[in-house]
Amino acid sequence: MTETNNNSCCSPDSSSKQLNNVRILIDQQLCTGCGLCGEVCPFGLPRPMENGKFRISDVNLCTECSACKRNCPVQAITMLEQKGCGCLWDTRQRIKKKGSSNSCCS
Amino acid sequence: MAVTYMRKLEEEPETYDSNFTTLTNGINLEVHNWVLNHLKESKTILEVACGTGILASKMTTNGRNVVAIDKNFQMINHAMLHYPSNIDGKLLYQIGSFKDLPVLPNSQDIIVSTFMLSELRPFEQQIFLRNSWSALKPEGRLLISAEFVPSGLWKLGFKLKRWRYKKKLRRLRLNNTFLVKWFVKYLKPIGFKILESEKWNHGSIQALELIKTNEDNLDEPGYYSPPSKKFIGIGSQFRIFRCTLTGQVDRVPIEPGIYRSGNPTKNSPIIVTANYDFTYIKVMRNIRHIDAWVLCVDSNGINVWCAARGNDFGNDQLLEAVEATGIQKFTEKKTLILPQLSAGGVSIPQLPKKSVKFPFKVKFGPIWSKQIPEYLEENPSKKPDFMKLAKFSLSHRMRALVTHTTFLLRKVFLLPIVGFLVIFLIMLIWINKLAWIGEFISWIIISNALIAIFFPLSNFTRTFTKKGIFFGFLTSIVLGGMTWLLHMSLIFILLNVVIFFWIAFFSTMSFSGYTMATSPREIQKEYPRFKKINKFLLITGTVLSLIGIIFY
Predict the structure, then answer these.
(1) Secondary-structure class of domain A2-96 per CATH
(2) B105-142, pLDDT tens digit by residue?
């Protein structure tokens, strides 16, 4: 995490403490601007900048589906992955059973 | 029978055999005898999923060579300790699975597998059969026993029993086993013929003796493709309704495999999708004017988005689908077009590159299947926004409304409603209160309709507790007005306003999973606060409403 600190586009001058709370960021040094992240994100969050590289336009809208991270060919995307679905019932099961849930939709 | 429950027993090799014998009423021992009687003159035997080794050791008689594999290393350890090689023959235990049999092609007289089939999903069963075919000598035999669905009336009892064990396994957080539904259909296309079969317990446990066939003298086994499945007409419309009504609860799997849209040829594209019935029907309808191969991966009867976010639509499922169906033999196209929403599970960089088993390039297509025709025609290198952005449009919200409301009525409100019904019927003087139940159901439906229709109004915040409070107020006003028209009593409204508020608050939170735009982190963070508010509203609301019911 700290390595990407200085190059982070989303929080250029954040301390590492803040970085721990960063949900998702694209490492500007690694990004080749291939744009695959922009193709898979259902919310169009990765957007190209002037230099052709991509950045996450609004971190707060990220649903942590991990599609971009999984498919980035150079592993430029760092994400704090949280297990589970964004759904009350999955959350309830996880909290009840301490962390595990069979699947979200049952 | 309850072979389902073996998932639990497998955890303890020491007691597995005795517990399993109890579970099957001793039929497993009869199955063992059946297997031993069918070994005949065989010399080389492979047992797949040998468990504790009890059968493997019995098979070594008459100087036979037995290789026994199991994927569970505890079982293998146990087997080596308790059932070591017999003096008569050779016995080798090894960790391994049906996916990669540790023997040479054309080397085995017999392959034995007891009670493994129900652990395998449809594609896995096909892969197992194909691998066995390759490992067997010509005319080699496969001895298989498994739990099947019995015929006739016995089916009902079987289903009931299975349902009970399923609940039990859920509580233990273990996965259920699978029904061996389509297995017999795979045999002929892959290259097996049934020689003999034996049934126990009205067919709930069956043993099959299969012989390897090779009429066309091929080097490899054949592939199975499911028969075409209807996607237009009244029947399929009912299947759509069924899925809409049970969306959040039921998985509705269709046979995974290759389906055809139109008359696909060697140059037709391959569209990959999930094996949820709803998804299948929608995709097939949307591409009905296009000739294409449709590959349904085994996503466990779950839609693409949820399956990808769980572990039901990922690289494993994709690789398995390609291996089991042999899709590369059907078309020269070397690109698989996946639904965009499967990207949360499928990882392109981690797929094998230029491998014989997976000779494909993978591309993520459009987000909704209705855009596939346009996507295929234009084949854009960068998709336009409308092909990749998730919009929670009114039509989506209406469908979500139906699914969510039926879910709430079935899973949350059914018990209280039945409870009140019983109380009102028993206390005869209260029989006139029955109308209240109807009113209560209408409150649930109306408040959910308000949430679904006016959901975009709550976009001022991403916090669902705040959205819930917003819809709480909105619903209280609407239902308050409605109650005024019905009862003309201000006190009755005041007594019920908290329950109005609660229904909307709770429903909004429960609706969160449908919006697509929520993250697990946000909901998990909100949950403790939600729980507190929820508890307060529910208790106050119930008390006040009860007073309302009793006195007004």
Answers:
(1) alpha beta
(2) 999 999 999 988 888 889 999 999 999 999 999 999 99
Give the number of other CB atoms < 10 A from CB of residue B323: 19
Return the bridge partners of B209, or none: B143, B196
All residues of chain B having their beta carbon less than 8 Å from the beta carbon of residue A89 are 248, 510, 513
Phi, then psi, of B478 in degrees rounded to 5? -65, -50
* Residue in chain A lying closest to B175 (CA): A102
Answer whether residue A9 shows pLDDT above 70. no
What distance in Å separates the CA atoms of residue A38 and residue B535, rounded to the nearest whole number? Answer: 41
How far off is chain A from B526, nearest CA to CA, in Å?
10
pLDDT of residue B10: 74
Under 8 Å between Cβ of B312 and A103 = yes
Q: B234-387: which CATH number, 3.40.50.920, 3.40.50.11600, 3.30.300.130, 1.10.1200.10?
A: 3.40.50.11600
B49-91 confidence digits (pLDDT tens): 988 888 998 888 888 889 999 998 888 988 888 888 766 668 8
Task: Please say if the pLDDT value at position B255 is more than 80.
Answer: yes
Please tell me which residue of chain B has the smallest CA distance to A100: B173
Q: Which CATH class is domain B3-212?
A: alpha beta
Contact B447, B413 (CB under 8 A): no
Instruction: Assign A103 to helix, strand or coil.
Output: coil
Contact B506, A92 (CB under 8 A): no
Q: What mean pLDDT is predicted for residues B165-182?
A: 70
Residues 53-72 of B with CB under 8 A from A: none
Binding-face residues of B in 179-218 toward A, CB within 8 A: none
Kindly list the residues from chain B whose CB atom is less than 8 angstroms away from the CB atom of residue A93.
Answer: none
B 376-435: CB under 8 A from A = 382-383, 385, 388-390
